[in-house]
Each structure stands twice: as structure tokens, then as C-alpha cells.
Design goal:
With 297 residues, the protein is an alpha+beta fold. The chain has 7 helices and 18 strands. A hairpin with a 2-residue loop joins strand 3 and strand 4.
Length: 297
């Protein structure tokens, strides 16, 4: 049996919210997991966390990250990155002294900014955005999302932006309508796979707390679960959407996310050198050892 350092962390917790759970496995220098090992571990976590993050230090100021859902490898996972890096910087005496460290992902090299002392948070550079063509009609989107046409907010366009994940962004008229959404998981999964959509983000400018800029919900059935309750990549795409349509003046903002009116999670966005950064903190729920069966290796 191989022993792996294991934590279950909840990211983007705020007030009464439960955050978004992620499992993090921190690998020692001599530990290497195969892709099948990583996928099998993630399959065991179906229904417990949305993604498992594997973190391996490269040197004193950089690390490699891989992300797996129960269904497949994920190119980038924002909440998992926040959870993993917040805990690492919080607990490693050398790393917590650094203003920033580099992470290597399948979306390229990104920067993690250490703001533990000032904001008790870490911020992460979102991957550079790709503005993709929307190839599906609003009627088809409504049908698969389970909304009627008048729930779509016509004053804002539907966009398709990749800032880590291919995100279809859909405006909804008000808070009541966005909270009422309850799409069928299998129907939406088939729609996403057919149209090469990673996640669907719905948003409204109608918020519970006026200190927050918008309310979002994110649906991710492609990855083995219906809703992602707090996302870095999805809200980063939303940040680039707001910049594109002059909805954001580039000052730091917070976004409330999930389907509960008052117990929402909070994702923070800010700009640095014309790039969107997303940020937050995480709370440890489980810490221990994962025992990997090595008999088949």
C-alpha cells in the first residue's frame, strides 16, 4: 500500500454557505501516480467532491497540478486550485513568505498571488480567454436548460468563453428565476457533450446582497454532477464577459454563487495587468492519509 497525503477542503465559503468541496492529494518528490490511478481515485469520490486535485512540487516556488472528476480529467479547476494552494501556502513556512508562486496546468503556467496577510486569501490568474462562436439557438438552450423564453434576459447576449473551461454564459432576468432553475442532468449532459460545452453559467444582476456584483449558477453535468456551487474558471469567464460588455469597471468585485438565496458562496474577482484574477480561501474538513493499493502495479 502506498501512502498519500490527503485533504478534503471546502473553497469559497462565505457566511452560512458550505463552499465547494475538493479533495487534494499532495505528492512527495518520489511519488508518481499513473493517469489510471488518478482517475480511479476520482471515481471513488463521486458524490463526495466534484474534483480531485493532484499537487506535486517542482521546485521551491512552483508546482504541477492535475485535476480529475469522476468522469474524466479536467483541464482546469478553479475552486480546486484555490483550495489546494490556499492550504499549501497557509501551512508551508517557506511558501507563505513568497508573494507569488507558479502553477503548471494543462492550460499553461499560471500565477498564484499570496494575499494571506491582507485578505486571508489567494488569487489566481485565470487562463487567457478564448471568445468562441455560439452555434446553438436560444430556443434550444432554453429547452435543454428547462427555462421558458421570457426567463432569458434579452438586454445581454449569450456568449461562449473559454477561461479554463468552455463556458456558455446565459443571462437570466431576475434572482427568483435563477434560483428556480432545476435542469434535468442527463438531458443537459447530452446537450453539453453534443455542443462541446464544458459548463453552463447562468447569471443575473439581481442579487441577494447589494455588495455583490452578480449572482451566478454553474451547471457541469459533463463532469459527473449537475451543479458546481462555486467556480473559479466559470466566474473568470464571466469576468471577461463583463469586461467585453462594459459591465465591470475593473475594480475588485465579489460574485455570489449557488442556488440558495441567502447561504451563497462568494468568489472574488480583480484585474492585474489586463488579466482577470479570481480569489478566495478554503476550510479543511478532513485531513489524513489515502492508502493506494499498489498490488496491481
Amino acid at each position: 500500500m502506498e501512502k498519500l497525503r490527503y485533504l478534503k477542503l471546502d473553497a469559497f465559503i462565505a457566511g452560512e454557505s458550505n463552499g465547494n468541496p475538493a479533495a487534494c492529494i499532495y505528492l512527495e518528490k518520489d511519488q508518481i501516480l499513473s493517469e489510471s490511478d488518478m482517475q480511479n481515485i476520482a471515481k471513488e469520490h463521486k458524490g463526495f467532491v466534484s474534483e480531485v486535485i493532484y499537487c506535486a512540487m517542482v521546485d521551491s516556488s512552483s508546482c504541477n497540478l492535475r485535476y480529475y472528476s469522476s468522469e474524466c480529467e479536467v483541464d482546469f479547476c478553479g475552486h480546486g486550485t484555490i483550495a489546494c494552494m490556499y492550504h499549501l501556502l497557509k501551512t508551508d513556512e517557506q511558501l507563505k513568505q513568497l508573494p507569488e508562486i507558479k502553477i503548471n496546468t494543462k492550460k499553461g503556467s499560471l500565477v498564484v498571488y499570496n494575499e494571506l496577510q491582507s485578505l486571508d486569501a489567494v488569487f489566481i490568474t485565470a487562463p487567457n480567454p478564448e471568445y468562441l462562436s455560439v452555434t446553438v439557438a436560444a430556443e434550444e438552450i432554453s429547452e435543454n436548460l428547462g427555462v421558458i423564453q421570457n426567463m432569458l434576459d434579452k438586454q445581454y447576449p449569450i456568449n461562449f468563453i473559454n477561461a479554463g473551461l468552455r463556458t456558455l454564459i446565459i443571462p437570466i432576468t431576475n434572482l427568483d428565476n435563477i434560483l428556480a432553475l432545476n435542469p434535468d442532468e442527463e438531458t443537459l449532459k447530452a446537450f453539453c457533450i453534443t455542443n462541446e460545452i464544458d459548463i453552463i453559467l447562468v447569471f443575473t444582476t439581481d442579487v441577494t446582497n447589494e455588495n455583490n456584483k452578480i449572482r451566478t449558477r454553474v451547471f457541469a453535468p459533463k463532469f459527473g454532477y449537475l451543479e458546481d456551487v462555486a467556480t473559479g474558471s466559470g466566474n473568470s469567464a464571466m469576468g471577461y464577459y463583463m469586461l467585453k460588455h462594459n459591465l465591470w469597471n475593473r475594480e475588485p468585485i465579489s460574485i455570489e454563487q449557488n442556488g440558495e438565496q441567502n447561504a451563497y458562496n462568494v468568489v472574488k474577482l480583480k484585474m492585474s495587468e489586463r488579466k482577470v484574477l479570481f480569489g478566495g480561501s478554503a476550510s479543511v474538513k478532513i485531513e489524513g492519509t489515502y492508502f493506494l493499493n499498489t498490488s496491481d502495479k
